[in-house]
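During the no-cost extension, the postdoctoral fellow (Dr. R.K.) reprocessed legacy sequence entries with the updated structure-token encoder. One reprocessed record is reproduced below for audit purposes.
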Amino acid sequence: MDFWQRYRAIDARDTRFDGQFYTAVRTTGIYCRPSCPARTPKAENVTFYETSAAAHEAGYRACKRCLPEAVPGTPAWNLRSDIAGRAMRLINDGVINRDGVEGLAARLGYSSRQLNRILSHELGAGPLSLARASRAQTARTLLVSTSMKHADVAFAAGFSSVRQFNETVAEVFDMTPTALRGTARHHPSAASTSLTLALPYREPFDPGVFSFLAARAIAGIEAGTATSYGRTLRLPHGDARFSVEYTGAGNSPVQDGTVAGGAVTGRTVAYDGGPQRQPLVLTISAVDLRDLPALLSRVRRLFDLDADPIAIDGALGADPRLAASVGAAPGIRLPGALDPQELLVRAMVGQQITVAAARSALTELAAAGSHSAAAGDGLTRLFPSPAQIAEAGAELLRGPRRRIESLLAVATALADGTLDIGYGDDLPGLSAKLLPLPGVGPWTVGYVAMRVLGAPDVFLANDAAVRNGIRALPAGFNDSGFGDPGDIGDPGAPPPVTGSPRGGTAPSSDFREASPWRSYATMHLWRAAAAVPRTSTARKAQTTKEAVR
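Re-encoded structure tokens follow.
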């Protein structure tokens, strides 16, 4: 967006752009979200920044009226596969808090000095400033949403000392932590043993992501319904347990307010973000406070809460083949991954078998995992680590010997560090790491990219369910010309189609007209395939590659 496009957005107070850029006003010395209700400033007094950290660096403080820190994140960090986008994904996951700038730079393959230069040029702030802004946002959320002691808030947000926490809050928000906490509309009970927040997102939101996760839930590790999902999780400093609930239309605990970093007391939710009526409520039952930023970031990635659904639906709805599906499920989300290594293992286990068979196999494999120290609500185990799979997987896995050997080889490589995948990868780098591995083909790389990286423009052209979804499209739009599906892990199988330009007047079989949102087109086609009555012929045709959808 150029200057005048952004200026028109703030003049219209368009909530779609909250979190995607920030408006700084020279005459007031503050920065705001695009939808700030204050009077639109004169254009000559306005500067736009890509990040709140850049506004901080330029000497601006956060607006007390619109609370620009209480917004969803920008979808650009998934759209952008450059160094800036990869760095932001890792910063949000807490890498700087754990490993420092040197650790972040090493993961990206740059020196710390060069990384600082790149990020300052691209985003207007260096890695330390970007991490500081992330800490300030987490601290603000915890202050207005919980009754945690200030010292606990400071360390949970990633600050190294209470003094640093106090100074940063005062500088960014022009308020003391106590005054900032006083802005909350409601406060949770001090006796609460869990941390409960409302998660910000851009509307519309399709809750189908809950059904997607529930269908693949592993007993003892995960539990899901059409409107809720919970699980145990291994994080850098210890085990965690959380659940997310979608309150649904007409069931919001309050009739007004906003959805951002909120707190729940009984049936009362405190909000402080943009106007939404159907909040996603996150309840964290157990977590090491040092892991809290990483947990919040990963849950947001799991439910794709930083997506821009208006832009996605606008592009997909323009394709006549997808228009009806987009109209029926606006705001569809791309499920993410809480643990990149776990996701790769689950994808390989699920190759060429049904969802139910994959879930059964993974439930048996879960016996290799340890019991969770954060156990509760029937969730008693952790997904096995790569080392545990490498050690015990041969006795627990069933199926073709080559597949088991391939999975054990990958688990061993993950365990000894020979293979390392994560949120800081890009698609070419991920392909270079995974394709040489036995049992991993282009389809698997594309699927892992969709879920781990949040890559928005992957089209799984050789996926059987995608083909079935195309056949389920309205008459006149289902002549795809696709042949028989290729094998997962077969090096000769056609690769996932990514990044193709728009072009041509006739709809293409790889949906390139939907670029750069073809991962979301894939989700619509999977949904269309699942809605078709399952005859014996359909079951046979859909067996291949169904499990990891």
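The CA atoms of residues 389 and 411 lie 6 Å apart. The first strand starts at residue 22 and ends at 25. The remaining legacy entries will be reprocessed before the final report is submitted.
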